[in-house]
Amino acid sequence: xxxxxVLSVYMGxxxxxxxxxxxxxxxxxxxxxxxxxxxxxxxxxxxLADRSGLNPHTLLDVLDLGxxxxxxxxxxxxxxxxxxxxxxxxxxxxxxxxxxxxxLGDGNAYLCQ
Length: 113
Prior knowledge:
CATH class: Mainly Alpha
Shape: elongated
């Protein structure tokens, strides 16, 4: 068996196999871009709901019924409502990941022209 040039990474529930290191770098940059964007959207959405007179818990219940239901909203939503922001991931790393995603997008901008 020749697997010397094939790399693999365990992504939670499945194994991704590809023969290029750059694939994994791009994959993780895109993954963390999604993660950071969702975290930002959930926090802003909860504040908007609260300041609009809606119960933020009701918003979380509605989100959990639809196509955007996900474990992160279920885990982080209630703690955001309680103003409990115990760090699980340092902000400096989140900012780095977003800068990497923006740089990757800038580098690929010519593809969209």
